[in-house]
Amino acid sequence: MAVYKVTVATGDMVEAGTNNSISITLVGSYGESRQTTVSFLFLPGKERSLSVHCGQDLGPIVLIRLHKWRLFLEDAWFCKDVRVTAPNGTLYRFPCYQWLEGVTTVEVREGSGKKLVDDKLQILKEHRHRELAARQEAYRWQ
């Protein structure tokens, strides 16, 4: 069994926290973890740490999925970043720096800069394509 240490940080601006449920899925080059609840309460400027238990080694962690679920009242949450430490001690950083509003799932790539030709895994190619399509829709690119 592989155990990954995960730390999720909330931004320190006013009302960056949330009372909604936040969970995470780790995606590695060999597979992905099950969805694991991080917390039901995030305060601004605070971090939450947890362990994610997996039946097998996920390999290098290439992206994460943050899931936000409404419990009672809807409120936005500002995710600063997520850090994942693999069982072998490798630290992966996922800079998020965005607001999550409503019931949503956000995929965040690992923070090291990569070019399109560096994406060897199909899941990373698909993520890059979805991200480009979303930006084209948001900004009305042709």
Automatic annotation (TrEMBL):
Family designation: Belongs to the lipoxygenase family.
Domain of life (superkingdom): Eukaryota
Cellular localization per UniProt: Cytoplasm
Gene coding for it: Aloxe3
GO molecular function annotations of the record: iron ion binding; isomerase activity; oxidoreductase activity, acting on single donors with incorporation of molecular oxygen, incorporation of two atoms of oxygen
Matches recorded under Gene3D superfamilies: PLAT/LH2 domain
Matching Pfam families: PLAT
Positions contributing to Ca(2+) binding: G17, D75, A76
Transmembrane annotation, as ranges: none
Domain Lipoxygenase: 114-142
Record-given protein name: LOXE3 isomerase
Site description Essential for stabilizing binding to COTL1, residues in chain: W99
Pathways per UniProt: Lipid metabolism
Record key words, sorted: Calcium, Cytoplasm, Dioxygenase, Isomerase, Lipid metabolism, Metal-binding, Oxidoreductase
Domain spans labelled PLAT: 2-114
Signal peptide: none
GO biological process, one term: lipid oxidation
Major place of residence: cytoplasm
PANTHER family (UniProt xref): LIPOXYGENASE
CC per GO annotation: cytoplasm
